[in-house]
Structure formats: structure tokens, C-alpha cells
Amino acid sequence: MLTHPQFDPIAISIGPLALHWYGLMYFIGFLSFIYFGKKQVKDQTWSLIDEKILDDMFFYGALGVILGGRLGYVLFYQPTYYLNNPAEIFAFWQGGMSFHGGF
User: Fold this and answer.
1) Where are the beta strands (DSSP E) in 3-89?
2) Partners of 14 in the beta sheet?
3) CA 51, CA 49: separation in Å to the nearest integer?
4) CA 47, CA 32: separation in Å to the nearest integer?
5) Is residue 89 classed as helix, strand or coil in its secondary structure?
6) pLDDT tens, position by position, 31-82
7) How far is C-alpha 72 from the geometric centre of its chain's CA atoms?
8) Strand-strand pairing, 17-20 and 10-14
9) Which residue from 22, 98, 26 is spatially nearest to 62, judged by alpha carbons?
10) How many Å apart are CA 6 and CA 47, to the nearest integer?
11) 18: which strand partners?
């Protein structure tokens, strides 16, 4: 039988602030998109994508990942709870993101 490794979901904790692993991965993914995207825009001047379009793609992509991740968590993991407590859907600080929702 395969066992899932048990690890602490908090990567770094400073006082009451905690940085979770998934948040760190989102941050690295967003930074990578900006870095490599701007590099591509500079290297390929013939492309139809300029920095303004790239910035718009980043904004809407990040918004989609965050909202989709939360919505995926709500729909796939605890739909009855959130149906009975709809205000809790917006309680991002309580955690709850899903990979497949963000994808």
C-alpha cells in the first residue's frame, strides 16, 4: 500500500504570519511567468505579444488561478458546507485551494 508523506504545510513561519508551500509555489510560478515572458518579448520582437499584453495575460491568469483554485476547493471538497454557508466561500484566509481548480 502506498502511503502519502506527512509533512508540515507551512514552509516558513514568522510570528503569526505563515507562508504555506502552495503559496510559495504560486509565487514562484507567477515570478517565472513574468521573468520568462518578458525575456521572450524582448528576444522575439516580431511577435504580436508586447509587454502590455503580457501584463494583461499575467493579471487575468493569476486572477483565474486564485479564483479557480478556491472555487475548485469549494465545489470538489466541501460543496454542502459552502452551500449552507455561502459567505465562507470568500474566507480565503482560512485556506482551501485546489490544484485542479486553479489549473
Assistant:
1) 10-14, 17-20
2) 17
3) 7
4) 20
5) helix
6) 999 999 999 998 887 788 889 999 999 999 999 988 888 888 899 888 999 9
7) 11
8) antiparallel
9) 26
10) 46
11) 13
For the chain, how big is the Rg over CA atoms in Å?
18
Q: Decide: 70 and 85 in contact? Cβ < 8 Å.
A: no
How many whole angstroms separate alpha carbon 73 and alpha carbon 99?
Answer: 8
Query: Could you give the maximum distance between any two Cα atoms of the chain, in Å?
Result: 53
Q: What is the pTM assigned to this prediction?
A: 0.75
Contact between residue 70 and residue 101 where contact means Cβ atoms under 8 Å apart: yes
Which one is predicted more confidently, 60 or 22? 60
* Separation between Cα atoms, residue 86 and residue 3, nearest integer Å: 34
- Residues 6+ away with beta carbon under 8 Å from 19: 10, 11, 12, 13
Strands (DSSP E) found in the chain: 10-14, 17-20
